[in-house]
């Protein structure tokens, strides 16, 4: 019925396109009824990594970026572990995004969102819209530069 019942007795109705997700530290106080009603799935934070998220994102790249999939995989594999390691050992996080083990997932998600937001030149043009074409020779450099910008602000900037 998509209603959120608060402890104060207030009921908040949600519309059909709305979804609510919660992240909890553990299920120490969850009853079997709570788990079955909410459809909870518990995963150990250590078993979650950012790699499946990246694989899913890479499989949904726009057609113009498809030829740079291997380059992006290499950039993720080379830079993300190093930057995450630096952040957790040397850097100071101004904001704890969630459970410590899932912070790297949140940071990589921010990287991908920033990359998508700035990759207009690689998107298909809408009807009646003209898009700037990047010369084929310069495209790999654009992809790499965009990735570096995104990792600095999406991962290291959080």
Strand and helix layout:
Layout: E1 3-5, E2 11-13, H1 32-38, H2 51-59, H3 69-89, H4 103-118, H5 139-156
Antiparallel strand pairs: 1-2
Q: Tell me, what's the shape?
A: globular
CA radius of gyration: 20 Å
> Major sheet: order of its strands?
1-2
Largest sheet, in brief, is:
2 strands, antiparallel
- Catalogue the unreliable spans: none
Number of strands: 2
**Computed structural class:** mainly alpha
Sequence of secondary-structure elements: EEHHHHH
Molecular structure report:
With 158 residues, this protein is mainly α. The protein is 45% helix and 4% strand. It is built from five helices and two strands, in the order E-E-H-H-H-H-H. Strands 1-2 form a two-stranded antiparallel ribbon. A hairpin with a 5-residue loop joins strand 1 (3-5) and strand 2. The longest helix is centred in the middle third of the chain and has 21 residues, at 69-89. The chain is globular, with a radius of gyration of 20 Å.
Short description:
This protein has 158 residues and is mainly alpha-helical. Helices cover 45% and strands 4% of the residues. The chain is built from five helices and two strands.
List key phrases describing it.
mainly alpha; 158 residues; two-stranded antiparallel sheet; 2 strands; 5 helices
């Amino acid at each position: 019925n998509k209603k959120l019942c608060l402890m104060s007795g207030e009921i908040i109705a949600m519309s059909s396109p709305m979804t609510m997700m919660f992240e909890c530290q553990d299920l120490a106080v969850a009853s079997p009824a709570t788990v079955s009603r909410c459809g909870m799935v518990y995963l150990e934070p250590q078993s979650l990594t950012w790699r499946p998220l990246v694989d899913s994102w890479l499989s949904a790249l726009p057609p113009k970026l498809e030829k740079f999939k291997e380059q992006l995989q290499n950039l993720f594999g080379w830079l993300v572990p190093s930057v995450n390691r630096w952040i957790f050992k040397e850097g100071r996080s101004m904001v704890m995004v969630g459970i410590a083990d899932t912070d790297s997932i949140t940071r990589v998600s921010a990287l991908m969102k920033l990359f998508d937001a700035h990759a207009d030149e690689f998107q298909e043009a809408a009807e009646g819209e003209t898009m700037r074409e990047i010369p084929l020779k310069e495209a790999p450099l654009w992809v790499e530069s965009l990735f570096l910008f995104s990792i600095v602000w999406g991962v290291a900037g959080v």
